[in-house]
Design brief:
By secondary structure, this protein is α+β, with helices and mostly antiparallel strands. It contains three helices and six strands, in the order αβααβββββ. Strand 4 and strand 5 form a beta hairpin.
């Protein structure tokens, strides 16, 4: 993935990509840091790595919740549309709903141009339902 995107395979890039692959969904910076465990990359390294991976289209910002950005692999999304996410209101877990396809809306208001659609739903996950 990294070489195909024209990036060097650094330890931080490989570790963060592996965490996102294993997670199978969107993670916040803190969740990534926790899952990286003993690797002990500092906050700046994680933020810069996520920015680099975002710039080449391997990762994208899925949504923002309570001022925390959640990132995920960009393989299930297009430049204009991200698949919906469901955040469980009981346990706080977030799940990708890649099997749901929603049409891109057109603005009913004059002058507005919609460039990207991100949908975040709230409800209960299967474990909490």
């Amino acid at each position: 993935m990294l070489k195909a995107a024209g990036l060097y395979c650094t330890e931080a890039r490989m570790a963060i990509l592996n965490v996102l692959i294993e997670a199978g969904g969107a993670l916040s910076h803190d969740q990534m840091k926790q899952r990286l465990g003993k690797k002990h990359f500092n906050k700046v390294t994680i933020y810069r790595t996520l920015a680099t991976l975002s710039n080449v289209g391997l990762v994208h910002k899925a949504f923002v919740d309570k001022r925390a950005c959640y990132f995920e692999l960009a393989d299930n999304c297009t430049e204009t549309q991200c698949h919906p996410h469901l955040t469980c209101t009981k346990c706080g877990s977030t799940h990708c709903l890649t099997e749901i396809s929603l049409p891109m809306p057109k603005s009913p208001h004059k002058g507005f141009v919609i460039r990207r659609q991100q949908i975040r739903l709230e409800g209960l996950c299967p474990m909490c339902a």
